[in-house]
Amino acid sequence: MEMRISGGKRTIKSLGLYNKQPSSSRQILSYSPKHSLLSAQLHTVWNCERVIGLCVIAKMASGGGFEDEAEATVTMEEYIESMDAEELEADLVLGGDEGDECTYPKGYMKRQAIFSCLTCTPDGNAGVCTACCLTCHDGHELLELWTKRNFRCDCGNSKFGTLACKLLPGKDVENPENSYNHNFKGLYCTCDKPYPDPNVEEQVEMIQCCLCEDWFHDEHLALKPSDGVTSQIPRDEEGVPVYEDFICESCSPVCSFLTLYPEKIRVDAKVESNGSANACSDTTESNQNPTATEPVQPENGTESEKSVLRGCSEKLAEPEPFPASGCAIATGLASCTEFEKKPLFLAKNWRSMLCKCEKCLEMYSERKVSYLLDAEDTIAEYENKAKEKRTEKLEKQEGEALDRLNNLDHVTKVEFLHRVNDFKEGFRSLLESVGTSRAITSDDVDQMFSKLKNKRKRME
């Protein structure tokens, strides 16, 4: 599944990985025309490849897929843009992984795309990498789980019985550090419902907890209704979420230390007199008084947390901003309310605000959330790396294609360029004959290729 990121909210939708276009067609995305005849003709060939895709659509329209061919009408620009968008979405979710090699040798990866095979493990207690999904479990009932942190490919281990990994047999019996939840069974949220839900006509968006990585419906976030407002997710005036990450109610005790930071690390919702929910500003009652010198000990805090606060209090000598070597939790807090188990919405770049003093690092380790300090744990960094890999791949493919053309002998080059030119002329004639009065049909396409075939026969 692909979870579309948009202001902290992600929408689950099928990626259709098995329908991904061949890698050769993806190189058009970053192509920059070069000043040479061959590269210009190569650019034409690549675009022709996409034109043929349009032709296939036209043929599908006449093959019973649509009652009326006009219903399948699509412009060339629309087709190319939609294909580019789908390919980019897939690459972002897969992290630039081409699915050629099993990721098991890389150990517990900080983040990677994971799939659950219900055919092999119906109990949902195993996950496989992209390569094993495509090679070892082709034709099986698979769930696309987007990404998981600190996960190692299970394919072929004891959970799969007699099924051995085709790419890398002989793996360990288990991966004890892997973490599994009901997502591996295709279930989500506290309501334990599947996605897509067959009993619901319109699928609704879900948001993901950045700790447990489960997904939740807006109405099941345990937000307290106020003045008739049932959902208080922080949004701007246009309804766009204004938070970066979300921590669910069940996971919030693990990160209760976040309530000891200045309010700017969180994005709370307030209910106005008209009953509308909006995001609070960074300036709140808790940081308007700069004279306090000690953080308040939360009554329900753990011993580890209280120890950290005691250490922070001992270091704090003056009410001025604490130096970089101090503890951020004790910096400029006028008061700290008692922690209440509730969902937390975190502001942009909140991870960079986390204290990195010795005591805090120890606390993160005890609570097993040290990954919050690792930039590579974030989805944004995961996708940035995927974009870099995509750019490198496309540039490499373009260079390899140009090298192949340049290595052709003179006669083959001339023949190739003539055929490309014939296709260009044939397609131009087709567009001129059709005009703007109607859409191109499968009959038009068949006729164009028939003319090209007859022309080649006459020249032979």
Number of H- or I-type helical stretches = 8
Please tell me what the overall shape is: elongated
Task: Estimate the helix proportion, in percent.
Answer: 25-40%
Give the beta-strand count.
Answer: 12
Residue share in β-strands: 5-15%
Q: N-to-C terminal Cα separation, in Å?
A: 51 Å
H-E string: EEHHEHEEEEEEEEHEHHHH
The gyration radius over C-alpha positions equals 28 Å
Helix/sheet category:
alpha+beta
State mean pLDDT (0 to 100 scale). 74
Q: Which key terms come to mind for this protein?
A:
alpha+beta; 10% strand; two-stranded antiparallel ribbon; 32% helix; 12 strands; 460 residues
Q: What does the model show?
A:
This protein is of the alpha+beta class and 460 residues long. Helices cover 32% and strands 10% of the residues. It contains eight helices and twelve strands. It has helices spanning 37-65, 76-94, 130-135, 303-315, 358-367, 379-406, 410-434, 442-459, and strands at 2-6, 9-13, 112-117, 142-148, 187-188, 193-194, 206-208, 215-217, 245-247, 269-271, 277-279, 344-346. The protein has a two-stranded antiparallel sheet. It has a two-stranded antiparallel ribbon with strand order 3-4. A two-stranded antiparallel sheet has the order 5-6. Strand 7 (206-208) and strand 8 form a beta hairpin. The longest helix has 29 residues, at 37-65.
